[in-house]
DNA sequence: GTTTGTGAAAGGATTCACAGCA
DNA sequence: TGCTGTGAATCCTTTCACAAAC
């Protein structure tokens, strides 16, 4: 019913409907804007900000246009204002409570990672199933037993769970988080987890990006190791 | 499109070239295939493998078709064979040497992360500028002073550098890595780094995914914290 | 003059659907 | 029968280019 004789119907993205690709870049813009604000910059042009984050000005403007019209033609964007709007769009203005499960090496790093606190994420609790770790003090937090999970989620009102356990424990931890009422989960364990509908799951694979680097490095020719080149069975015809 | 590259992006994609989106998924397939292999599976269908990694069979088949024709109609893919071809495509069959700079919390976690070694990445050296850390033994490696960088790169033939330093030190470390001859860099510090052409830079932002989660959680309505609803300039027309 | 905001065009990626083979 | 491989269609993202606004 959208046929108006036009070649293609207007995409008609409703206001507030921000494309996924844009959302993934907003945190990057935000970080650059924070640096600019610290340096005392009051305004910034799309060209300048794009250069800072290694993007293009057109893409940046289109991204920002999805949030609203916050720039001034001939001038640029006000840094503080943009920080506010992006933060609000990302939902960072209201202090999320985060439950972190697993305080091995990675859990330690995450618990002490300044980037969480400074962006509105409060680590409400550190949990670990290992009795030897329980009671340990990390970044001002005492590690609690994993069995406290339900209580912790209830008392802190946490919506977000972070999994930094070994791969083998991750699915179980994930299930318990869901059962406790957590609806957003960030997984650092190198496994693919299953979650029911209604739960948002994202993952960070520390080795994944390294493998992508490997691909590109391999393409360019490397300096060390085997110079092998076994042929494809079908040699990619012209 | 080398991620953070300057402009100067040659738009043309050559034949036999694998799309970037596919490359980003190959490591995920690889991990699932390793699990299957451990479980003794000899073959796997696109449907089954896609379910394991949370993707679709059509996408999986199209991805694999970029590597060649390694499936058998009516049967599926041989697990071992697929592992080999994906590994080779990613350049994982030749043992990269990696230099890790910064052994704080995150550096510790990365140094001990099994996922590197098991995928063909050898941590050739751990470096830190802090004299107090130098000499420390982590995962069987002794931490060396950052000033050894050139020597380390030369003697190990490392092509890949991993930056796990505080944000403030990252650009300097990056410059030194480039000067030492490293051509692929993985950055965990929360800053955008500048590299010259010919150097491939990727980054992992531990808080970025959390912010994307925050966005989606925010969309759904949250359970805790402020129930505020500061108005948008226009109130989201239906 | 400068810079934003945005239709329109171009380019990629995903999904569809089925031919072809085991 | 079951499943892969792949053109075609669809959807999403980026780039282009310029009118409008300062």
Question: Your description of this structure?
Answer:
2 copies of one chain form a homodimer. With 238 residues, the first copy, chain A, is of the alpha/beta class. Helices cover 39% and strands 17% of the residues of chain A. The first copy, chain A, contains 9 helices and 10 strands. Chain A has helices spanning 20-38, 46-53, 57-65, 79-90, 105-111, 114-117, 149-156, 167-180, 208-220; strands spanning 43-44, 71-72, 76-78, 96-101, 121-128, 137-138, 141-145, 160-163, 184-187, 200-203. Chain A has a 7-stranded mixed sheet with strand order 6-7-5-4-8-9-10, sandwiched between helices. In chain A, strands 1-3-2 form a 3-stranded antiparallel sheet. Chain A is globular, with a radius of gyration of 23 Å. Chain A starts with 19 loop residues before the first helix and ends in an 18-residue tail after the last helix. Mean pLDDT of chain A is 87; it is low at 1-13 and 223-238. Chains A and B meet through helix 1, helix 4, strand 4, helix 5 and strand 9 of A and helix 1, helix 4, strand 4, helix 5 and strand 9 of B. Chain A binds a DNA duplex (22 and 22 nucleotides) through residues 8, 10-11, 19-22, 45-47, 56-59, 61-62, 64-65, 69, 71-77.
């Amino acid at each position: 019913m959208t046929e108006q004789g036009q070649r293609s119907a207007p995409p008609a993205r409703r206001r507030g409907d921000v494309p996924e690709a844009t959302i993934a870049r907003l945190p990057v813009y935000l970080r650059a804007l924070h640096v600019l604000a610290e340096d005392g910059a009051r305004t910034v042009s799309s060209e300048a900000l794009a250069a800072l984050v290694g993007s293009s000005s057109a893409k940046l403007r289109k991204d920002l246009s999805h949030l609203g019209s916050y720039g001034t033609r001939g001038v640029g964007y006000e840094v503080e204002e943009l920080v506010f709007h992006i933060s609000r769009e990302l939902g960072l203005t209201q202090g999320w409570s985060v439950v972190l499960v697993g305080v091995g090496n990675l859990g330690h790093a995450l618990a002490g990672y300044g980037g969480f606190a400074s962006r509105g994420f409060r680590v409400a609790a550190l949990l670990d199933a290992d009795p030897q770790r329980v009671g340990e003090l990390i970044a001002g937090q005492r590690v609690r037993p994993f069995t406290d999970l339900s209580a912790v989620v209830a008392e802190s009102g946490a919506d977000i769970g972070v999994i930094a356990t070994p791969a083998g424990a991750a699915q179980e931890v994930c299930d318990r988080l869901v059962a406790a009422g957590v609806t957003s989960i960030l997984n650092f364990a190198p496994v693919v987890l299953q979650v029911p509908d209604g739960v948002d799951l994202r993952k960070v694979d520390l080795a994944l990006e390294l493998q992508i680097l490997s691909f590109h490095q391999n393409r360019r020719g490397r300096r060390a190791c085997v110079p092998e080149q076994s042929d494809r069975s079908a040699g990619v015809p012209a």
